[in-house]
Amino acid sequence: MVARRSALQRLLRLGEITKQSQTVLLEGLRSSAWTLEELRDAALDEVKSAAGEGTELAPAQTELAVKAAYYMIIADTMALRREGYASTTAEDGDDVETDDRSVAAVIGAMLSNTRGVHQAYSIVRAGRSGDPLLEVDDDGYLVEGSDEPRVLTNEIVRNTYNNEPMTHATHGAAGARRRWDELVTDIAQTEKATKTMAAVKVTAGSAQTWLEANGWPLTDVRNARERLDWVSRQLASWGDAHQAGEEDVD
Questions:
Q1: Are residues 139 and 42 in the same domain?
Q2: Coil, strand or helix: which one is 144?
Q3: For a surface tag, which of 92, 94, 97, 194 has the fewest beta carbons within 10 Å of its beta carbon?
Q4: Paired strand residues for 151
Q5: For residues 54 and 159, what is the distance between their CA atoms, to the nearest angstrom?
Q6: Alpha-carbon distance 119 to 80, whole Å?
Q7: Are residues 133 and 80 in the same domain?
Q8: Strand locations in the chain (E)
Q9: What is the mean pLDDT of each run of 10 residues along the chain (250 residues)?
């Protein structure tokens, strides 16, 4: 409770809050005609018109930012109340890039782009319904994980909204996220290719597939499985490392 209250207090560092007029927007009040969808659309318009360009968010962006931040802070899975860690030094002496931005800085970066507005809208909707906070894409649709929608975490939010274009990032958290997304895409392509190969028929119109009738050379199969096993072990080691880090933080 103390950590959450502290995070909410740090959210007040978002300078735009003090400039927000009490008569502007304020969706959710009985005396206001604004709906959450209209607030989202207004924030999207502000992004497109560059009304909130730079460090300044416009009124709709600011209101949506504050409401989303509240649900992000109180959600255990989100844990935005935890700020990043100070920079450290790797064994080779190089600086390790970390994210030590405040809650206000992260939420400000989020609401400065279209995807972030969609994400904030999704967060508020889910928070009010008591549902899990899930990641959305540039168009506001859920981002699918391996089998189900991906639950938002502190790392996902900080990596996605870090003021560096993901398509250009080559190092640090943003670079790792970019490469992870490429890896997941390649895995999906491998799955698709496997299903396509499995569907090859013995002859046109045949009910039997080629692999059912003939299989595939064992040498090729072993080589492919060894490569996939290596990938699987790599993924497992990354998951173990992340879990160990989470336990250290706890």
A1: yes
A2: strand
A3: 92
A4: 134
A5: 19
A6: 14
A7: yes
A8: 88-89, 95-96
A9: 60 62 72 88 87 68 90 73 44 52 82 93 94 91 77 84 60 71 83 93 92 96 96 94 70
